[in-house]
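Human: Here is a favour to ask of a fellow structure person. Comparing notes only helps if you start from a blank page. I am asking you to supply a protein in sequence and structure-token form. Write it directly below this note and I will take it from there.

Assistant:
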Amino acid sequence: MTIERCLKTVVLFLAVMAVTMISGCGDGNNNDGVNPPAASGSKQLSSFGFLVPASTGQINETDKTVAVEVPHGTDVSSLVAVFTTTGSEITVNEVAQESEVTANNFTNPVVYTVKAANGTTVNYTVTVVVAPNDSKDITAFTIPGQTSSDISGTEITVTMPAETVVTALVPEITHTGADIDPASGAARDFTNPVVYTVTAADSSSKQYTVTVNVPEETTKVFDFMTDGDALVRNAGSDWYFDGGYTGNYANGYGYYMSHTNIAAPWLFTGNFTVEFEFYLKLLDDEYIYRYAFRLVDPNWENNANGKFFDFAAYYTAFPALTDDMTPTYYQTGQGNGSYTNNDYFTGVPGARAGINTCTLVKTGNTITVSMNGTAVKTVTISAANLPSVGYAPFIHAHNSWDQADSNFYLRKVTVHYMSDEVVYHNWNEGDVGGGGDDDDDGL
């Protein structure tokens, strides 16, 4: 090669280099379409979940899986997903997906295909799991022959008939959840409360305490020899008391009553016996106008519909002290606002001067009256006059205005009843409720 040809080659190379450098200069913007950047290959599923029901998926980027748990009972056949992605689009079975819009059936796993801007794709498999049921409730608990069963929260109370042997009772239990221990139909000793554990499908559990009650004959005693004023006249008394003249008499006759009515704060709902112990003081030239023993329902103060039974003795003159007491007449009656009665113009059978006990026995819709063990009358209460809740013992006395001259003194009121057949009733607050203080102090 000649020197001239070499020089020509060098000049041509330098010219090409100059053109290249010039074409590379400009305003610094390389995105003018002459030489565009490479398309992005990013295609990550950044988040996934549901708004309804509210739930967030757990994304495993390594395995390209998404797990979502939804509450028990969720219908997964048409759920609308909410998601974000770094890709350009997402499809399911070539159907474009829009967050918060497109619904899919998640009964089986669903494959979401994420496409990058450069056309590459990646698949995420979404699995929706329905949470197991957490329900674990006893909805019914019965024992054959029971008289009642009550579920209150996790406390269950079953009442059996009197004299039931509770050492091997077989309950029938209805419950939600997967299991209960002890099982329904298994004999148990209910001498003491028994704890039942209900286990839900999600393995959580709840305990119920079952108490079996067997009613037994119970007695309430209201002692007016010592507690008369404390029972009926203290500021917090729950007895019915309409005033009049009362007090503990110093000579030991009892609690004198005149021009007054009192009623015990308990309603006895079944069959029961009430014993009214009282003292009749007979003096020459004195007389008792009236005393009465009644059974009244909670509406007693409302004359329009108060239901009651009444036994009353009326006196207009006294016999000689050597004779048995002979009142002019006695009366039985009943009512529910209106009053029907029968008068018997003879002395009260069995009555005497001094200490007496008038006994009222309620059996079904009949009430039997006896005095000192001698039968007086048996009365059938009409359906319209039966108590709305139960009967309370009631005492009325109307005689002398002064205790020193009084002829009627209340000594004691005793009620025999079954333990499950009584309802507390505060006459001064107007409330009727179950249970309450079951002590024999009457307070």
Summary: The chain has three domains: 45-130, 138-213, 217-434. The mean pLDDT is 86. The radius of gyration is 46 Å.
